[in-house]
Every structure is written in structure tokens, then in C-alpha cells.
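Sequence only, no structure available. Ideas?
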Amino acid sequence: MTILAFFLFIAPGLLFDWISAYRKVPRKESTFTEISRVALVSTACSVAAFLTLLLCAALLALQDRKPFPVPSAMLKQPNTYIADNLVRVSVTMIVIAGLAMVFAWLLTAIVHHGDKGKIFYESTWHRAFREYQPTKDMRVHVRVTLTDGTIWFGCVRDFSPDMEVLDRELILQPPILCKPTHRDSDGNRVRVRMPERWKFVILRGAEIVSIAVAYAPPLSTMADQGGTPLPPPAETDTAPAQP
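Reply:
I predicted one. C-alpha cells follow.
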């Protein structure tokens, strides 16, 4: 009975909310409001499914066909009737639950008829570092600017999947270069290559201002083609002339 109650009074509402979340950004609301909406949608869809099945049973009864349980008999002697017609009752409950889910899907289509877009609940990091790769063997190179002005260059090894940027971390692997904020005697910011013994650099999402992304073939492929792996040769930033 617990499973049946879930599919009749909870599952349709959850399906409605799940599909709606991909069509429209959900509003911030209290837990009570969310639970009430799920219960209301589920009950409405289950009642619609029951009435639909009742109408089908009435139409079949006109032809002397009674494939569904008799409600009056179930109300008079529920335990005895269910025990004697267990298969019929079970199939009927499954059909009602299935129809309720279909009605929840139709309700979503009606409510969000004008919402043609689709919302993706994935971080932009995941899409830039994984989905937008031309091929899976491409290396993802980034130019990461931090809040203090430091710039890091490197190849993306991995990153944390948290939706909140403040909770994310970005892992860079060689070739790794860093352009610190201080300038040399000529007023230039020089990019410095990290020693090979440093295998990874971990950057916190809270400190990242911007990320520039580039894709390049593996180093072995570029060497065969006579190319130069990213990042490009060192660049300098010249300080403005002092008056």
C-alpha cells in the first residue's frame, strides 16, 4: 500500500516538478509550498486517471465486459474481494498509476506550452571543458585570471562539479605557466614557466575572475605535425608610461 500511495499521491507531482524545472527556472519557495504542490498535482492526476478508467469500465460494461474490479464489491468486502481478485486489482492499480503519470506529463506540456527553451543544470565549466571539446582527445588549455591579478596558464586536468562557483576547484597540469602581478625592471609582467617537478596547480573558484579556453591536439600529435603546443610563447604586459 505504501508503494501504491507513492505512485498515486507523490510520483505524479514529482514528475511535474522535474519536467517543469527544465522548462522554467524554479522560484524560491518554502518546503510547505513545494510539498503542497506535489500533493495537489498528484491527487488531481490520480483522480483524473481513476475517472478515465471508470469511464472505460462503464463503456465496456455496456458490452457485458468487466475486466476491471467492481467498486461496490470492493467497498462492501475489501479484504475478501482483493484476495479473490488479486491479479485484477493489482493490474488496475498499475494502470491507474501509469495514467496518473501520463496526466502529469500532459499537464506539464499544457502549463509550459509557451516555454520553448530548455534549461540545463550543468555548470559552464563542465560545458566548456567537456561538452564543447571538438574531440575527446583534445587537450583543454585555459588562461585563468585571479582576483589579485595573477594569471595562470595550463592544461585542465580536472575540476569539481559543484554548481556554486565558490565551491569549485580547478586543477591544472603541465605545461603550467604563471604571470604574477609584480613587474620587472622594464615595467613588464613576465610569464614564468613552473618547474617540471610541480605536477598540478589547484585554483579555488572563489578566486577566479575569468577563464579563457582553447582546444589543442595532444602533444604527440602536434609534434608529428611540426606544431607548437599551447600555451603560446611568453607574452608581456608593458606598464603605462609615468608622467
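Confidence is low (pLDDT under 50) at residues 220-230, 232-243.
Hope that gets you unstuck.
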